[in-house]
Amino acid sequence: MIMRQLNVAVLLCICLRAGFVSHATEVGYQDWQFTNSANPAIPTVLTNSAGKPTATIMLGYAASGWLESLSSFGTQTGLWDLGMQDPNDLAHDTRGRVQLSIPNPVPATSSTNTTTDFGLRVVQFVDGLFYIGTLSFSIPGAVYLGRTIVETLPGPLGGEWVADQFHWHWAPSPAQVSLTITGAVTGTLLDRITVDTASAVVAPPPLLITSVEKHSDALAISWSGGLPPYQVYVTTNLLNSEAWQAVGSPVSGSSAEIPLLDPVEFVRVRGSD
User: Of the residues 173, 203, 233, which one is the last residue of a structural domain?
Assistant: First the structure.
């Protein structure tokens, strides 16, 4: 809040902005073990209060599809052979894909800020020759944080079953996480996909007036923090809490210009929070 005076120098208030504070973290867990050929596939193990995630498998060139097991590839069961790039049709991308759609229990809204941390673990066969293990991802709006090799298990023909962990972050959170995993050019053999999500409501920084400037018979006010929409109020009597009067319409930005009417008035800005 600031006081405004007609024909008197206007006060300038510059305040430090507080950091965000997290509240109400909700954790989700989705584990696709692919125990059958259902497509789209529902997670074998699931914790998600927002609904049921799905994994839609789009097979590529020369794909074998779902396999209960492969006798020469160890004890892993529930496999998806996604296929490969057609060497005779390089003009089109024929690699296999998995489309994950995961409802987010704490999406951002007009009145809340939220963040989501997303961990993806993919178990696939890698031999460095045919199954090279190179995956690519399309995950709109997320910031990529890195990859970790979690573990490797010995496989046939000098290959290994490799568990890779990938990490992303959203701010603000999406209503639904959409991720497309695209297989390697030479082929991809998947065993398991696991997703961890941690979504949190984030308290916005406090709404603080950062500048006040007099423009002829008007007052230009800028602020930071809070959540839109914002409303400017004025009063001449601080002892009466009901004397505050709204000036103009609510604004979605972080500044407003109001007329200077009375010799002495107090001004404040309120957000939706």
Answer: 203
